[in-house]
Amino acid sequence: MHPSIPHNSPWITSADVNAVSKVLESNWLATGPKTNELENVFANYMGEGQAVAVSSGSAALFLALNALKIGQGHKVALPTYACSALLNAVYMSRAEPILFDCKEDNFTICTDSLTNYSGKLDVIIAVHTYGAYADITPLKKLNISIIEDCCQSLGSHVGTEPIGIESDCSVFSFYATKNITGGYGGLVWSKTQHITNTIRNYINFDCCERYIPRFNFSIGDMQSALILSQLQRLETIRDRRIHIANCYDEALPSCLSKQIFPNKNSEMPYRYVVKAKNEKQIEKLKSHMQTLNINCIIPLETYELLHRYLGKDPNMFPNAEHIAKTTLSLPLFPKLTDNEIARVCNALKTFRL
Ligand SMILES: *Cc1c(COP(=O)(O)O)cnc(C)c1O
C-alpha cells in the first residue's frame, strides 16, 4: 500500500522558520515592524493602493463592509456557493445578505442574475472561487460598491495584473489551508486611503482620544513574518500549482470534467475540482481515490450552501446545488512531490465508470 497523500498541507521552509525566530528574538511580538513591512510589500505587489493586515479573512470582510459604511438596512449581494465566513461578516455588520447562484463553468457569482436583479443592493461581494476569476467588468456597470474576496486567489492574475485591483477593496486570508499562510491572518487592500485609514482606526482601540466602539482585529509580528516570508516565493508557489493542475488536466479521463479556468496560466488554481455527471459517479471516483490512498474532499457540501443555511428554496440555485453534489477536490499544494503527482495522474487515468 502506498503512503497516504493528504488533500492539503502547508509548505514551511527553513527561511520561514528563521523569519519567525527573528521576531521571537526581537522581543516585538504584537503588531510592529514586520506587519508594517508585510503591508508595504503587499501594496507593492498589487502595484498601487494601501494594505492593512488583520487577524483573519473574516475580520477583513467585516472591516471592509464597515469601512464602506454598510450596516443596518443595507443589502449585500453574495454568491450562495461560498464559505459561511461571508454570511458571518454580513450579519456582524447587521446588513442583509441577498444570495445569487453561481456560474456552471467556473463556479463564480452569476453576473447575469446580478445585472438582471431589480431589487436594491448596496454592495456586492464577488468571490474568486478556488482562484478562478469572477468577472468584475459587468458588475462595475451597476454602480454599486464591490468587494473582491481574494481569500482563495492570491497569486492569480487577470491579464498581467494581480487579481483584486478592480474594486473598492479586496480581502485576503492567510488561514492555514490557503495559498500563503500565517496559521491565521487576513488583509484588506484598497486604492482609497480613506478606507484603509478607517480600518486602521477601527482596530487600534488603545489610547484613542475620542471614544467610538472599535475592536481588536490585529495581527501579530510572528504571523506577519511568516506570511511575508512566503509572499517572497509566491512566484514559485504559483508555478508549482499551475504545473500540477496542467498534469491533472492531461490525465483527466473523458468521463469527467472540471471547474474551468478560462485564463489558463494567469489564474492560479487553489483547488483542482473534478466534476462528474451525477452523485453516483462522484461517489465512485471518491472510493477509487480512497482505495489508492489519495485523500480527496467534497470542496463544498450541499448543506454548506448559503441558501441552505438560510432555508431558501434550493430550486432557485440550480447551478450551486448541482456543483455541490457532483464535485470532488484532488490534492493540490506546492509540496506535492513529482511521485505523488504521478500517483494522482495514474489514479485519474485508471478511473472507469
Ligand atoms: C477562507 C475564506 C474566508 C475566511 O477567511 P478566514 O481567514 O478563515 O477567516 C473568506 N472567504 C473565502 C472565500 C475563504 O476561502
Question: Concise description?
Answer:
With 353 residues, the protein is an alpha/beta fold. It is built from 13 helices and twelve strands. The protein has a seven-stranded mixed sheet with strand order 1-9-8-5-4-2-3. The chain has a three-stranded antiparallel sheet with strand order 10-11-12.
How is this structure best described in words?
The chain has 13 helices and twelve strands. With 353 residues, the protein is of the alpha/beta class. The strands form three sheets. The protein has a seven-stranded mixed beta sheet. The chain has a three-stranded antiparallel beta sheet with strand order 10-11-12. Strands 6-7 form a two-stranded antiparallel ribbon. The longest helix has 18 residues, at 234-251. Pyridoxal-5'-phosphate binds at residues 56-58, 82-83, 85-86, 127, 149, 151-152, 173, 175, 186.
Element string (H = helix, E = strand): HHEHEHEHEHEEEEEHHHEEHHHEH
Helix content: 25-40%
| Secondary structure: number of strands | 12
Strand order, main sheet: write it out.
1-9-8-5-4-2-3
Categorize the overall geometry: globular
Round the Cα radius of gyration to an integer and report it: 20 Å
Proportion of beta-strand residues: 5-15%
Which blocks of ≥5 consecutive residues have pLDDT under 50?
Answer: none
Question: How many DSSP H or I helices?
Answer: 13
Bound molecules: pyridoxal-5'-phosphate
Main pleated-sheet profile: 7 strands, mixed
Average the pLDDT over all residues and give the rounded result. Answer: 97
Structural class: alpha/beta
In angstroms, what separates the terminal alpha carbons?
23 Å
